Amino acid sequence: MWGERRRRVLFYRWSAAAVLVAAVAAFGLLYPLPYFIMAPGSAIDLEGVVHVEDAFHDEVGSFVMTTVQADQATPFTLLISGFVPEREIVQANAVLPPYEDAEHYFARQRAVMEASQQVALIVAFRKANLPIDVKEVGALVTTTIPGTPAARALRSGDVITAVDGRPTPTAEALIQALGRKKIGDAVRVTVRRDDHVQVLSLTVDRLPQAPGVPERSGIGLLQPLTAREVHPSLTVTFDLDQIGGPSAGLMMTLAILNRLVPGDLTHGHRISGTGTIDVDGRVGRVGGVELKAIAAARAHAEYFLVPDDDPPPGKRSNYDEARQANARFRLGLNIVPVKTIDDALAFLSALR
Fold this sequence. Notes:
Elements: H1 2-30, E1 35-45, E2 50-52, E3 62-72, H2 75-81, E4 88-91, H3 92-95, H4 102-127, E5 132-140, E6 143-144, H5 149-153, E7 159-163, E8 166-167, H6 171-179, E9 186-193, E10 196-203, E11 205-206, E12 217-218, E13 221-222, E14 225-232, E15 236-238, H7 249-260, E16 270-273, E17 276-277, E18 283-284, H8 289-298, E19 303-307, H9 318-328, E20 334-338, H10 341-350
Parallel strand pairs: 3-16, 16-19, 19-20
Antiparallel strand pairs: 1-3, 1-4, 2-15, 5-7, 5-14, 6-13, 7-8, 7-9, 9-10, 11-12, 17-18
C-alpha cells in the first residue's frame, strides 16, 4: 500500500516537473521580446529570378543580391545571439516604424520591392536604349497611421491622383501638397480604387504621438510610393515574392541590363552588392550593410558593390560600414563604392 502511494507521489512530482520544464522551454522559445535578431540572409543569384523575353544569355559570371534576415527575439534566441558575432540585436522600434506592427511593416516592404523592380526596369531599359513607356499616375497608399483621417478613409492599394483638384502624379508631389496644410484644414483627395475614381473629404489633424517622433500634423499616410504604369518593350518578370524593401534596386538593374545587351557585364566574375536605385540612376543608402557583406562572402562573391553615400549625422557611410565588416570578419571581398549606375558600369567595364 505504502509502495503504491509512494509511486503515485513520485509520478505526480515528475509530471509537475515535466510540465514546468515544458512551460519554461516554451517561454524561452516562443515568448516574443521587443527586440529583433538581425543576421546575414540569403545571397540570391539573379540569373534564376530575373527573366527577360528574348534575352541575351552571354553571362559567364553572375550578379548576386544580398539580404538580411530579421527575426523577432525570444529569450532563448536573445541569449544565444549574444555569443554570435555575426548577429545583431536591435530594439524592435529600430526596425518597426512607429504606428506599425510587424505584419503591416513586412507587407509595406513587399510593396516597396515592387516599386523598386519598376525603377530597375526603367533604368535598365534606358541604359540599353530600348523603348519603355513610363507614366506616373499618382501616389500609392501603402500604410496608414491608426486613428487618423487617412486610416478611416483610405486603404492600402489606393492611388491618390489629386489634392484639392491639383494633380499629384508622384509621392513627392503629394507630400508637398499636404505639407502646405495646417491642422483643421479640409482636404479633398481624388482616389483611384479598384478602377473607380472618387473624391474623399479629409481634415488635417495632429498625428498620434509616438516615442522619439516629433509632434506632426497630417492626414496619416506612412511612406506613400509613386505609382507608375510601366510598359517595357520586352516582357520582364521577377521571382522574388518573399523579399521586401528597396535595397536590391542596384543589383536588379544590373541583372536586367545584362540580359538586354550582348556580352557579359560581369566578365566572368561573381558580383554581389546592395543599394537602392532611383529613376535617374542614383544609388542610395541601405541598412544592414555589414550583414549583407557577410552573406556575399558566404556566397563566394569576389566583389561587393555598395553605396558611396553621404551619411546622416552620427552615422557611417555604407562604404565605411562594408570596409569595416570586411576587415573585422576577414571576408576577403573587394569593396566597390558607387554613387550611380554609371559608376557601377564603369567599374564592370574595367574588369575586362
